[in-house]
């Protein structure tokens, strides 16, 4: 039986439009808030059509020595040109980009996952040192 890790895909975000690009500092001071931004399709834009879009992004932080990660945020992108006139005939489209901040008392791993309605689950990970 395969585990959850087999469900997630990852790649170099400069060559693959589905990978969440994490923009966050590699170091932070204990007690300070860490500002993070996540973009899907930073180098190669991801389609945002009714038929093919990023549905959501989730962010987790696993602090050193902890057993389970903490969910930091979940963002849902729900406007993809849908309309009563038909697919891609609407006038509103959501860009799969989100910003959030969090505080951590220990170093750890920031993991961001995204879901494409056609190509499944993707993830990226960044280590953050806390001094």
Q: What topology emerges from the helices and strands here?
A:
Elements: E1 8-9, E2 20-23, E3 27-28, E4 33-40, E5 54-63, E6 70-76, E7 97-103, E8 108-116, E9 120-130
Parallel strand pairs: 1-9, 3-9
Antiparallel strand pairs: 2-4, 4-7, 5-6, 5-8, 8-9
Number of domains: 1
- Could you tell me the mean pLDDT? 92
Q: What is the total tally of β strands?
A: 9
Name of the top-level CATH class: Mainly Beta
Total helices: the number is: 0
Task: Report the sheet-strand fraction.
Answer: over 45%
Describe this structure in words.
0% of the residues lie in helices and 46% in strands. The termini are far apart. The protein has 131 residues and is an all-beta fold. The protein has no helices and 9 strands. It has one domain: Sandwich (Immunoglobulin-like). Strands 1, 3, 5, 6, 8 and 9 form a 6-stranded mixed beta sheet that branches. The protein has a 3-stranded antiparallel beta sheet with strand order 2-4-7, with no helix packed on it.
Considering the chains and any ligands shown, give keywords for the structure:
131 residues; 3-stranded antiparallel sheet; 9 strands; Immunoglobulin-like; 0% helix; mainly beta; elongated; 6-stranded mixed sheet
The gist of it:
The chain is an all-beta fold. It contains no helices and nine strands. The protein has strands at 8-9, 20-23, 27-28, 33-40, 54-63, 70-76, 97-103, 108-116, 120-130.
